[in-house]
Design a protein that fits this description.
16 helices, Rossmann fold, Dna Ligase, domain 1, alpha+beta, single chain, binds ligand MV4, 34% helix
Length: 463
């Protein structure tokens, strides 16, 4: 097992990894930018190295600085967390070439799953059901038009190097497809340095269900249940819950087996997430595979009582999984919400600044993963996540009551937050009934997607 791990990240996920390491008796090295000198991950790590100015490109995204910090502190492994370099195959390769263990899947799997068009192709070859659409990247507008004609509108254009909703455009007819294809390619080139775009049938009233998988280097792969991530705002997940109210035991079995089949098809090890769309008829379609520990991993931890970060570290050290599929036992109901420093009155623009008072909720079944504290200054340079509130109850009704009570107890003053947005969602009868789909926010809480002045503009599909 490693004696010392460097955490190449910041905020709550850096703290989360430090916690796992400390419980495993592993020393920790924190890296931080000048903007994070007062951040808790610096304080709680055994050692810390300032790696540069606030700009991510000169700090948390700079492989050279991170590797140098690992060398001067004699760290044996690097945990990338999520975001930053977590799904950067080149960084994973650089770690390996510098005799550092990258805590994650192999670089080739990171690269392959990072190309969403290639991931689809590999799933088609493995008989994993994928959303009807292009089997290869689109090469011409004629090809796109004939394909869309075959599968029927609406269709959605997706950037192969994108993922998570970035650069997606919905087209409801041939005219929109003609207009949006060149724009989507140009946008993908600018955003990801890769203009490759593919096309899928747009499933209008779907659920977004993802399955947590865990594999070791000996070829063992298990699944750890599903997370329903359907409630999103502009492709940012707002709420994640498990189990999904749209999944019955038969479908759950199929979901888990299909997720393991997908992971096995690409030789997966470490923690990973297989994302599916579930259509109104109960059909499952592979959408993409994420090769990192995700923001919402605590949902699965509370359902299964398995520490996913510890398992990820054990696998990276070459250990075989102790867990067998029959040992995975999901209990109760868990819901997670992300508390962001964003201002709902300013179209959720980031609201960095000093937190003047901070009180987190507690009590049975309440977990708060946060790096924030009273007097802490949320910097403007990074994502606006302040805390994740995760609640667990025996039933969904109990969990939602706990969540509502916890949101009322959550005190953050000095900066704007999204706490009140969640009170609106959790109070909504359609959400409480569990009968929501991907259109939930747009259909029932449109004022929380865009403020009044923007709403007057006609919604342009594919915008
Ligand atoms: C889709 C889709 C329906 N059909 N793809 C992918 C990334 C994620 N952030 C949203 N994604 C979706 N991809 C096809 N072919 C529906 C979603 C989707 C969604 C879309 C719009 C508004 C909210 C959504 C919530 C979850 C999933």
């Amino acid at each position: 097992m490693f004696k010392k791990i460097l955490i190449a990240n910041r905020g709550e996920i850096a703290l989360r990894i430090i916690r796992a390491c400390r419980e495993m008796g592993i020393k920790t090295v924190a890296v931080y930018s000048e903007a994070d000198a007062e951040s808790l991950h610096v304080r709680f790590a055994d050692e810390d190295v300032c790696i540069g100015p606030p700009a991510p490109a000169k700090s948390y995204l700079d492989a050279k600085r991170i590797i140098a910090a690992a060398e001067v502190t004699n760290a044996e492994a690097i945990h990338p967390g999520y975001g930053f370099l977590a799904e950067n195959a080149e960084f994973a390769e650089i770690c390996t070439s510098c005799n550092l263990v990258f805590i994650g899947p192999s670089p080739s799997v990171i690269r392959d799953m990072g190309d969403k068009a290639l991931a689809r192709q590999k799933m088609i070859e493995a008989d994993v059901p994928v959303t009807p659409g292009s089997e290869n990247p689109l090469t011409s507008i004629d090809e796109a038009l004939s394909l869309a004609g075959e599968i029927g509108y609406p269709v959605i254009l997706k950037a192969a190097a994108g993922g998570g909703g970035r650069g997606m455009r919905v087209c409801t007819n041939a005219g929109e497809l003609k207009k949006n294809l060149p724009a989507a390619k140009a946008e993908a080139e600018v955003a990801f340095g890769n203009p490759t775009v593919y096309l899928e049938k747009y499933l209008t009233s779907a659920r977004h269900i993802e399955v947590q998988v865990l594999g070791d280097m000996q070829g063992n792969i298990i699944h750890l249940g599903e997370r329903d991530c359907t409630v999103q705002r502009r492709h940012q997940k707002l709420i994640e819950e498990s189990p999904s109210t749209a999944v019955n035991p038969v479908l759950r079995q199929a979901l888990g087996e299909t997720a393991v089949q997908a992971a096995r098809a690409v030789g997966y090890y470490s923690t990973g997430t297989v994302e599916f769309l579930l259509d109104g008829q109960g059909s499952l379609y592979f959408m993409e595979m994420n090769t990192r520990i995700q923001v919402e991993h605590p949902v699965t931890e509370e359902q299964t009582d398995i520490d996913l970060v510890k398992e990820q570290i054990r696998v990276a050290a070459g250990e075989e999984l102790e867990l067998r599929q029959e040992d995975v036992n999901c209990q109760g109901h868990t819901v997670e919400v992300r508390i962001n420093a964003e201002d709902p009155l300013r179209n959720f623009a980031p609201g960095p600044g000093r937190i003047t008072s901070f009180h987190v909720p507690g009590g049975h079944g309440i977990r708060v993963d946060t790096h924030a504290y009273a007097k802490y200054v949320i910097p403007p340079f990074y994502d606006s996540l302040i805390a994740k509130l995760i609640v667990h109850g025996k039933t969904r009704d109990q969990a939602l009551r706990k969540l509502r009570r916890a949101l009322d107890e959550f005190i953050v003053e000095g900066i704007p937050t999204t706490i009140d947005l969640y009170k609106r969602v959790v109070d909504h009868k359609v959400f409480i009934a569990g009968e929501y789909d991907t259109s939930f926010m747009e259909q029932y809480l449109p004022e929380l997607i865009a403020p009044e002045e923007v709403k007057s503009a006609p919604a342009v599909p594919g915008s």
